[in-house]
Every structure is written in C-alpha cells, then in structure tokens.
Amino acid sequence: MTIKNSRRGEIPPFIVMDVLQTANRRQTEGKDVLHLELGQPATGAPKGVIARAHEMLDKDLLGYTEAFGLLSVRKRISEYYFNAHKTSIDPKRIVITTGSSGGFVLATIAAFDVGDRVAIAEPGYPGSRNILLALGIEPILIPTGQETRFQPTPESLSKIDGKLDGLIIASPSNPTGTMLGKNELKSLSEYCSDRGIRLISDEIYHGITYKEPGISALEFTNESIVINSFSKYYSMTGWRVGWMVVPEDLVRNIECLAQNLYISAPTLSQYGALAAFDCKKELDANVERYKKNRTILLSGLHEAGFTKIAPVDGAFYIYSDVSDLTNDSEHFCHKILEDTGVAITPGIDFDQGRGNAFVRLSFSGSTQIIRKASDRLKDWMSKQGKR
C-alpha cells in the first residue's frame, strides 16, 4: 500500500541552489568558479559579534529565550526604528525569528487562511511565492517592469479581479535592487489599509542602499507586518536570526505560533545580533565595497552588451533583460558557467512568466572577484559576436 505524502512540498525548486550545486561540482573537478549567483555577503559576521559570541559561550548556559526573543535585543531594535525612521515601536510588537524566512512563515500562517489571495510582484523572491503555495494560499502575481521600477502600484492592484487578502512588497527588491520611494510606499500602505488588505513589507536589505536610505512601511501604518534580517547588512547569514514587527492584533497569535513552531530563535545568535548594532563602522565599510562592486559590474556589463538593466537602488543584485541575447536564460547561464566559470542565476527563478529573458548577477563578493567576472563576461560576449 502506498503511504500518502503531503502535496505541500510539490512547489518549484529554488533554482539558484541548483546553479550553486553545478558550480560546486565544477570546482571539485579542479575548475575555478566566480560566484555571482548567491545573495550572500563575502564577509563574515563583524568582529564585535564574534567577540560577543565567544564571551557568551564561556559564561552563559545558552538555553531557550522567550518565544519573541531576548528583551534586550527587542529594545535595541525599537531604538533602531526611532533613530532611523522616527517611529516609536513597542518592543512587545517585535519578534526575533530564525532568519527572515522563519518570519515569513510565521507571518503568513498568522495573517492568512487556506484559500486566501495574496498579491506579490513578479519578478520577486521565489521563497515568498513558494511559502504561500506550500501553505495553501494563492499567490496573485503582478507583472511589473521598468515603467514602475519593477514595483507594484495601487493601479496594478486595482486591476486584479476578486478580493485580495494580502500584499507582499520588497524594497530594496531581490532580484531587481529597486526601491519604493516615500510617496509610492505611502500610497500602497493607504490602498491596503482602505481595503482591509494585510501588507507584509520585506525590508531585509535596508542598510544596503546607494542614494537614499530605505523607507519603512512602519512610517505610515501600524497595521503592516515588517520583516527584517541580520543576514544582509549585518553580514550574519549562517547565524539564522532576523526579526519582525507585527501589529497589535497579531501579537498573541504569533506568540502562540512561535512557541509551538520553534520555541525561540537561537540564543547565541540573538546575543550576536545585539552586538551587531555596535559594529556600524565595519558594516558601512562593507556597503562601500558593494557600491564599488556595483560600479565595476554595471560598467562591465554595459561594455559587454547587457544594456537593459533595472535601476540598482539597493541590495547587491543586477537584474538584466537579455531577451536580445537569448530566450532561454537557464541555458544561457549554464553556457556562461561552462565557458567562463562565472556563475549567475536565470531569471526564471524570480519570474515564471518572463524570466527566460532575464538573468540576475550578485555583486556581494570581493572586488577582485567582481572585476575578474566583469572582464570574463566582456571577453565571452566579444567571442559570441554580441559586443
């Protein structure tokens, strides 16, 4: 007799991980790889974080914390919002999570029921879309383009047939790097509030911006769920720690879910996160490197013939339209890896409808790697007769 399996796992793969696997296989064969496929800082955690972790390992039991996390960390996050966004947030509304991914799961389970409809921009982070699918929530994909800087608008939402229960936005966005301005975010917040639509704002790339600082949805509404992370700006990917700010009406529900799903975020990581707020000089130096890498890669791509590129306002990605070069971005990326050793991600990961005409490149690595990759792509495109 066949034993039943849940259909929740029957969701699309995260293709960038398949690219990573292929790139790693190439390395085991003794061939070099320049990793531009992963959205991961090339730096480790700040020195102050490492020192704090060593200290706590020596003197603390490191047992469970409250489900919402250490109060000291939540108070420090509250201070961050007051200083950065002139917004007062009660620490009781702040939840320390196992990375932003853990936050997304908590948020979607608490805010939506099976069969609810949640809008999300396409291209967008595949994990958000696939979490919705796994939980029986219908993702309503909003095709976006250069005309709206790859971001949703009240106008695009108004064209959706049927009732919407939620909207997920990301600013800066993965994969495009585009950001919502103050007026745009305010308009979306008001649109959702007026229609009873729960807004979830992905702000995990705040701190990594190149012209204007990121705007938080908390500046306009207390009804939204805001998700952030220590992985990107704070360079703590493997520590698996992030946070959420949740509305008053969801505090107890999310607390009960957190208690039952994972008890608490890793205690050592929470102590490290607290120390991260005192490492601004080191972290801002990382952003300066991203800024330099961004300039190098943008220039190199333009010279190579990649000319249709989304505005890179923040994060550490370049999202390029390659429709004049290929109609199969997976094969295109595979060919580039095979011929040059440069690993990049096909757009189909982020946009199932139009992604075969796009690729994403990450410039989070060392400047030396970005410069080498840029030179190799220029040389490769020249040999293809595309320059």
What does this structure look like?
- The protein has a seven-stranded mixed beta sheet with strand order 2-8-7-6-5-3-4, sandwiched between helices. It has a four-stranded antiparallel beta sheet with strand order 9-10-13-12. Strands 1-11 form a two-stranded parallel sheet.
- Strand 9 and strand 10 form a beta hairpin.
- It has twelve helices and 13 strands.
- The protein has 387 residues and is an alpha/beta fold.
- The chain has helices spanning 15-28, 47-59, 71-85, 99-111, 126-134, 154-158, 182-195, 251-261, 267-276, 280-304, 329-340, 367-383; strands at residues 34-35, 94-97, 117-122, 138-143, 166-170, 198-202, 225-229, 242-245, 308-309, 317-321, 342-343, 345-346, 358-362.
- The chain has two domains: 7-43 and 281-381, Aspartate Aminotransferase, domain 2 (3-Layer(aba) Sandwich), CATH 3.40.640; 47-279, Aspartate Aminotransferase, domain 2 (3-Layer(aba) Sandwich).
Secondary-structure element series: HEHHEHEHEHEHEEEHHHEEHEEEH
The number of strands is 13
CATH homologous superfamily grouping of the largest domain: Type I PLP-dependent aspartate aminotransferase-like (Major domain)
CATH topology of the largest domain: Aspartate Aminotransferase, domain 2
Which structural class do you get from the secondary structure elements? alpha/beta
Strand order, sheet with most strands: 2-8-7-6-5-3-4
Task: Sum this structure up briefly.
With about 375 residues, this protein is α/β, with parallel strands linked by helices.
Keywords:
387 residues; alpha/beta; Aspartate Aminotransferase, domain 2; 2 domains; 7-stranded mixed beta sheet; 4-stranded antiparallel beta sheet; 13 strands
